[in-house]
Structures are given as structure tokens and as C-alpha cells.
Amino acid sequence: MKWLFSVILCTFFYSASLAQTNTLDHYLELAKSNSPLLKDLRNQVASNQLDSLRLKAGFKPQVNATSAGIYAPIVGGYGYSEPILNEHTLNGLVAVNQAIVSKRNVNAQVEAITLLSQSVNNAAKISEQDLKKAVTNQYITAYGDLQQVKFSQEIVNLLITEEDVLKKLTRANVYRQSDYLTFLVTLKQQQLQLAQARLLYKNDYATLNYLAGVADTSIVELSTPDLQTAMPPGINSSIFFAQYRLDSLKLINSRKQIDFSYKPKTNVFADGGYNSDFMGQAYKNFGASVGFNLSIPIYDGGQRKLQYRKISLEEETRQNYKAFFNVQYRQQLAQLNQQISENDKLMPQIDDQIKYSESLIKVDTQLLQTGDVKIADLILAINNYLTVRNLKTQTIISKLQLINQLNYWNR
Fold first, then answer.
1. pTM of the model
2. Any idea what the CATH number is for the domain that residue 281 is in?
């Protein structure tokens, strides 16, 4: 009686600990908000936006104030040569420098940063899908463990009830002592499996919290994951093909920048202020100056053609990777859809088998009351029921995992 009371008390406290329930969306939101990788990628996008603004600012007039002074005395005929270095100079100037760059050149350089930001942003979307897939996969695993715990508890409760009946019948010499011990061994085995199922759920649930970045050791019940098969978007809209498109635009932009690097470069400047060597009328040495620099590329030894060739090779590599990924992408979607379809076809057969197993157990437990069933037959019926119920749980979890894999590609 004490043993039965302990089992009931343990079940009560375990059920109370699972009174709170959490959903899949809850863990997905936690994982996204806690992920340092997603935060890093968002900061990279913001940093690239600042680089774009800094680049544009660099093409505006640059104004600098400079000042320098020197005193090199000649003592007793010893000192620096005056033609090389004035004995004393002082200057204080405000200089303005402006590079003459075409708007198309500026736009090409800004476009390079924009494409980089788009690549990082696309990488963030893919990383988010990776995280979502991993968390969902672990959630489904833990949910399957929880279903196994509940089912094992159901079987233990059934065996405890029948054990009490069998004990009375054994005392009344309806069943032999060996029959009772055989049944008791089965009960103990199921109690052990229940303890193992609880431990497995606890471990997989802790892993789920770990993936979501949650520091919590309490155990709660997981709601049934509401996963629906979503149709993946077309190739032109998929984030998994967007990187190939961005890489193509990057190569086009690189070719533009090569072309601009061979254009003439002009720079104009002006300064004004005070610049004197104090050799004459120093108070008159206030003035200003203007000038320009011009650079025209003439011959580079054929480097431009080599850079073009390098870009062509990169484009060829990009096309090869895209074509190969396209084949893999279509094959994986077809395979996942086929597996989900086959999984659905299996469920009606499993449900029928469960009905037969439940009916057999119901009949055997009724016959047990009158001693008209062999204990070995009852145990066999229970084991068959265990097998088919486990198969159903595995099939349901397998389908959820397949849907999760398919939905990974739906963005």
C-alpha cells in the first residue's frame, strides 16, 4: 500500500510541474531575440550604412587647418645651410581640397557597399532560418519525449490497476503465484521505462532551452507544434538563390570600378593664410594659392585585361554553383514531399492496429476478472499495444520533422 501511495504521489508532483505549457512560437521568439549571430549581422548592416555615408562625405570638399614653424639658429658660423633650410619659418594655412569624381563613379562605389549590406542581410535571413529549423527540430524531439512519458504513465496506471485485481485473484488461487510474479515483472519494467522517458524528456527539454538561450532548469509541458506544410517560393524570390543574384551584381559592379579606375583623375585645391621665412617684410606674407593635379593612365602592362579575365572566371564559378544547387534544391523538395505523403498513408493502418490492440486488451482485462485469460496472453497483448502506440508516436514525430525540413526552404 505504501508503494502504491508513493507512485501516486510521484505522479501528482510530476504532473503539477508540467502544469505550465509553452508553445513553439515562444521558443522561436526567444531564440531570435537571444541569438548573438543575428545581432551581429544586424550590426554589420548598420555599419555598412555608415560606411556608405562616410564614402559620400569623403567626396565633399575637405577643409584642413595646418600650422608649422621652425627655428634653426646659426651660432659662430655653425648651423644648417641657409639655402637648404631657412633659419626660421612660420606658416598657418587653411587648405581646401576637392576631388573631381563623376556621379557614376560615386554611385558605383556606393552600390558596392549597398550590395554588401544586401548580402549580409540575406545571410541574416538564412541564419534565422537555420536557427528556426534547429529550435523547431529540438522542440519536436522534446515533444515526442513528452508524448512517450504520457503514454508510459498511461500503461503503468493500467498495469497498477490490473495488478491489484490479479493479486486478489492469486490469493483466491484463481491464478498461480508465478503468474502474478510474471505480471509484476512486466509492471516493474514499464515503471523503469517511464523513469527513462522522463529523464530523456528532461534532457531534451534542457537542450531546447540551451538552443533558445534560456537559463532555466524548470520543466514545463510543451504544446502540440502547429506545423503546416508551406509551399516554397519561386527561385527568383527564395533567399537561398538571392545570394547568387547578389554575387552576379557584385561582379558587374567590380567591372565598373575597374573601368573607373582607368579614367583620368583630377583634384583641385586651394589654400590661404600666412607663410613667411621672416627674411623680408614678414607682415606682408599673407596670401593664397590655387592649383590642380591631373593623372591620366596610359599603360599598365595589361593588368586591366587580367582583371576582366578574373571576373569572368568568378562568374563561371557562380553559374556552376547555382546550377548544382538548383538541382539539389528541386530534388530535396520532391523527396520531402514524397516522404510526407508516404507517412500520411501509413497512419490509417497504424490507427486500425491500435483499435484492434485496445479491443484485445479490453477483452483480456474483462476475462482477468473471472480468471479466464492466461497472464502470458495479457502481457503479450499489452506489449503489442506498446509497440503499435510507439510506432504511431514515431510516425507523428517523423512527419513533423519532415514538415520542418520542408518549411526551411519556404522563405
1. 0.83
2. 2.20.200
